[in-house]
Amino acid sequence: MLQEGAHGKWTVSSSDESADENSDSEKPCTSSLSDATCGKTSGPQYPCSEARKAAHKRKSSPLKFTDKSLSTDAPPAVKQRPSQEGSGWCLSSSDEEPEDQQKPVHKETVKEEKCDVHEEHPLNLCKDDKLSENLKEEEYNVTPSEAQDTWDLVTGGNPFRFFLTKVSGIEQSYNSGALHIKDVGWLVRQYPQEFRKKPLLIVHGEKRESKAELIAQARPYENISFCQAKLDIAFGTHHTKMMLLLYEEGLRVVIHTSNLIAEDWHQKTQGIWLSPLYPRLSKGTSGSAGESATNFKSDLISYLAAYNSPALREWIDLIQEHDLSETRVYLLGSTPGRYQGNDKEKWGHLRLRKLLKEHALPIPAQESWPLVGQFSSIGSMGADGSKWLCSEFQESLVAAGSSVTTFRKCDVPIHLVYPTVNNVRQSLEGYPAGGSLPYSIQTAQKQLWLHSYFHKWSADVTGRTHAIPHIKTYMRLSPDFQKIAWFLVTSANLSKAAWGALEKNGSQLMIRSYELGVLFLPSAFGLDKGYFHVGRGKLPDRKDSATYFPVPYDLPPEQYGSKDQPWIWNIPYTDAPDTHGNMWVPS
Question: What are the angstrom distances between the C-alpha of 26 and each of 78, 176, 258, 390, 443?
Fold first, then answer.
């Protein structure tokens, strides 16, 4: 059906969802991948959103731009490197090592999973009998001192334990200290051969045909088992991305923003929080032992218990047996349900409000301290800002200390960072990068007011301006953008489904989806001034580096210009070529 509006002409497929809460989620469609709506019979070999299917189709069958007079509008195409066979976590010291020689510097994950992984699932729980070769000298141009620097970063050289993933195709210096998985083929091939039979539990949110496909794909692997996350509220998704990794030497928790599919670890901006290696507690230790000042252990157990799954009971017991006291971040999760009373503050944006009131210091003249939200998908916000964004959600984000807020919430500037059409067009992936930005025309047209808050994606500070963000971050900054009151990296996009929405005159919080992130507060890092300094790019080589937080993109954000439009996945872009000389026609 051909339509026309503020964003030009576009075709709306009859298979598009019309429900507000579902139209822009990353929830996979459950139709067969051979359906016409999925593009072609050789579609992506994992359940995924319609936006991702369109991107896969355009990668497989690109539409070349025909007007050569405009070809100079796009940067030259960047060579896309193929995925390589390898294994384990690796902190990159260079992006330009020969692909056929790359081997991991540091391999700790012993994750094995079927090769065709659900786009959204990723709670990845696995066991290993041994922490394999924690530090291995490379066979290609990596000196022992460089390998030691890498190991130092993982074991404590990065005080925040916050990493970006490696991006292929950017200047090699910007990948120094980036964390990545060597082979993303997917997970079974990714492990060292000797660890491919280790037990693996996959927590997912699939249903019906999609669930059947997932089970069928795992059938050859006897070591893989599944736990289905219950999604009892319509349009909810299992969006959490977490790994629990058990070794002989201890337990590690990894909370990240990348789906466990190859494309998410290749040329996108993604974030990872990597825990310390938690040692086992001595036998006979009380159940409350091993807790951190941030209550991370009990909060993680509460989050896993919310699945109400016997399959996760073993992992809850294992967490109880380990010492998580070194953790310096707060866990912030969402779980589906309707919550009242004290339970309202356990999840979503009310959980963030509670943490900020209890642990953030009051900010002088705080009405002038702006909020920055950065995300890769947008849900329905309502007819205007008063419906959610500038009311209950903003009230949670501006909370600070126990003092009562005396300023008007609407006085606090809000900067929302979301890629423009040109951001996507000029990206390393070109237009197909927009497949991971599932903002639909149906939703966008209902909330044109929201676009006045939008700011461009720019990350020159980390060399990732052309690596489209799938990371999601939120923070509160000083007016000069030099200080940070708090920083959150999470799976939660800008949506009521992810963060929750108040019902029944504010007495009830309703959340549709599972989400998970970690909150960095200055007080947890021994800073009594109530703020971090903004770190530009890589962490400073200084003893007080814990005072400089490495924000992964440019500050202050630049507001959309008069000709800028937010990326909307399900309309065509044929006026200018992308970095590969192609156009975007999603249907």
Answer: 27, 30, 12, 24, 14
Point out which residues pair with 516 in neighbouring strands. Answer: 333
Quote the percentage of the chain above a pLDDT of 90. Answer: 56
What is the arithmetic mean of pLDDT over 517-531?
Answer: 94
Region of poorest pLDDT, from 88-97, 539-548, 555-564: 88-97
User: Which residue(s) pair with 203 in the sheet?
Assistant: 123, 227
Distance CA 332, CA 516 (A): 6
Of 106, 180, 204, 239, the active-site residue reads 239
Amino acid identity of residue 25, one-letter, is S
Compute CA distances 74 → 212, 563, 582, whole Å.
42, 16, 10
> CA torsion 135→178→122→245, rounded to 10°?
20
**387 marked among binding-site residues:** no
The verdict on whether 239 is a catalytic residue reads yes
The stretch 500-514 carries a mean pLDDT of 98
Catalytic residue among 56, 349, 470, 580: 470
Which of the residue ranges 70-79, 92-101, 415-424 would you say has the lowest mean pLDDT? Answer: 92-101
Measuring CA to CA, which residue among 28, 68, 62 is closest to residue 46? 28
Q: Which fold has domain 148-584?
A: Endonuclease; Chain A (3.30.870)
Mean pLDDT over all residues of the chain?
80
Running DSSP on this structure, what letter comes out for residue 377?
-
Residue 33 has pLDDT above 60, yes or no: no
Q: Is 180 a catalytic residue?
A: no
Beta strands 414-417 and 371-374 are parallel
Measured from the Cβ of residue 278, the count of other Cβ atoms closer than 10 Å reads 24
Distance of CA 448 to the CA centre of its chain: 25
Distance CA 478, CA 434 (A): 31
What is the mean predicted confidence (pLDDT) over 500-527?
97
**Integer angstrom CA distances of residue 376 from 152, 157, 202, 282, 323:** 32, 30, 24, 43, 35
Q: Residue 114 and residue 126: Cα distance in Å, rounded?
A: 13
The secondary structure of residue 137, as a DSSP letter, is -
| 472 belongs to an annotated ligand binding site | yes
CB atoms within 10 A of CB 431: 29
What is this structure's pTM?
0.83
Please state whether beta strands 508-511 and 501-503 pair in parallel, antiparallel, or not at all (unpaired).
Answer: antiparallel
Q: Which of 80-84, 161-165, 303-307, 524-528 has the lowest mean pLDDT?
A: 80-84
Phi and psi angles of residue 522, each rounded to the nearest 5 degrees, phi first? -55, -35
Mean pLDDT, range 29-42, rounded to an integer: 35
Say if CB 253 and CB 243 are below 8 A apart.
yes
